[in-house]
Amino acid sequence: MDRTLVEQIVRQVALEYLGRNGKGPAPQLAVMASARHMHVCREDMDVLFGKGSELTVYKDLYQAGNFAANEKVTIVGPRGRVISGLRILGPMRKQSQVELAFTDAIMLGFDDIPVRLSGDLKGSPGGIVMGPKGAITLKEGIIRAAIHVHMNPAEAAYFGVKQGDKMKLRVGGGAGATFNEVHVRIDPASRLNVHMDTDEANACGLHLTKDIELFK
Amino acid sequence: MDRTLVEQIVRQVALEYLGRNGKGPAPQLAVMASARHMHVCREDMDVLFGKGSELTVYKDLYQAGNFAANEKVTIVGPRGRVISGLRILGPMRKQSQVELAFTDAIMLGFDDIPVRLSGDLKGSPGGIVMGPKGAITLKEGIIRAAIHVHMNPAEAAYFGVKQGDKMKLRVGGGAGATFNEVHVRIDPASRLNVHMDTDEANACGLHLTKDIELFK
């Protein structure tokens, strides 16, 4: 099913704010919908896929070094409902984490999951995750990822924003909407790139328009 | 599944714009998520549920005279995919119509469906609809309902809008978003009421906040 593709690129937009603010041409903006996925830590990888197993690359993602892995798991929610074929994104992280759209969370039997930045897992719900070699019980780590924009310091300077700021993303068209809580995440290795989830992409009709604007 | 409930009331918000614009207290605003559903015409009702059959009330909806019916159908999409338990909303209409969120449309095998106001069906895709007594082939009528606000003329006067105008609906909170294309539909029998679909409600976290504002 299309929706299960990880990091499906719904729309890549090249916005040229030529000369805007006298700062020269704007960096290219890519806006993508992230389908539900999981990040795993070394310890959980050992249980799920076998001691010393490694993630293998299915597809490189837009941010350098990140990839959709061939490895998939099955997750079981609080009422015994299941989502299978949940793809893992690499590389491995310090803590395992599952990112679902709210629609996915409902499907899995949750009444709610918190909207969080990646890595901010405290108090989030958990679940059972099953791999081919074993199962783990996540005590916490199931979140809905807050919409965010990756950028490098030069891009941050262009927009006049700093780490932790919020920006807005306006998507035009017949289902047009403005996301008012786009978290800014700055890293020298990043490329300018908004990540939204499939609920947000479906709501605003991201696939329908090239009229997209990121602003402070 | 919760998502299959028709006209699930995610949030009713009583906004009191006391004295705003010197126009006195604001009308109460109810914002609701409409789950996927169907409207049927007399002719299709005859085929689906039997000659002369009538819709029966499962639950009254917020707009007077409208109701979720006990009657449900199954719809088959272009690749043979199926959504069952699709609830009908009454009363009957002049033309049959299926309203899906974009997520539903993808589930049903569509790559896209148009965002339309109710009744504006020209060129929209069709499908096969099955009831207990027979099946119909809709040549067109499957749409994604554009977000809209029902109001009566006094409420329209309060906001200073007329039929066909568009307003904005800002939903606050951690997944906050502003819907920029809220169609105004004025009818003397209406109560002030925004209808969005489940994708939109899930995207903005409608269930998470009371910080909601409708404006021109």
What is the arithmetic mean of pLDDT of chain A?
A: 90
Low-confidence stretches of chain A: 7-12, 14-20
- Following the backbone from N to C, one meets helices and strands of chain A in this order, namely EEEHEEEEHEEEEEHEEEHE
Percentage of residues assigned to helices of chain A: 10-25%
**Based on CA inertia axes, which overall geometry of chain A fits?**
globular
**Largest Cβ-defined interface:** A-B, 35 and 35 residues
Strand order in the sheet with the most strands of chain A: 1-2-15-12-14-13-16
Work out the radius of gyration of chain A: 18 Å
Instruction: Indicate the structural class of chain A.
Output: mainly beta
Strands of chain A, total number: 16
Q: What's the number of helices of chain A? A: 4
Oligomer: homodimer
How much of the sequence lies in strands of chain A comes to 35-45%
Biggest sheet details of chain A: 7 strands, mixed
From the N-terminal CA to the C-terminal CA of chain A, the straight-line distance is 35 Å
How would you sum up this structure, described in words?
The structure is a homodimer of 216-residue chains. Chain A is mainly beta. Chain A is 13% helix and 38% strand. Chain A has 4 helices and 16 strands. In chain A, the strands form 3 sheets. Chain A has a 7-stranded mixed sheet with strand order 1-2-15-12-14-13-16. In chain A, strands 4, 5, 6, 9 and 10 form a 5-stranded antiparallel sheet that branches. In chain A, strand 9 and strand 10 form a beta hairpin. Chain A starts with 10 loop residues before the first strand and ends with a strand. About 6% of the residues of chain A have low confidence. At the A-B interface, helix 2, strand 14 and helix 4 of A face helix 2, strand 14 and helix 4 of B.
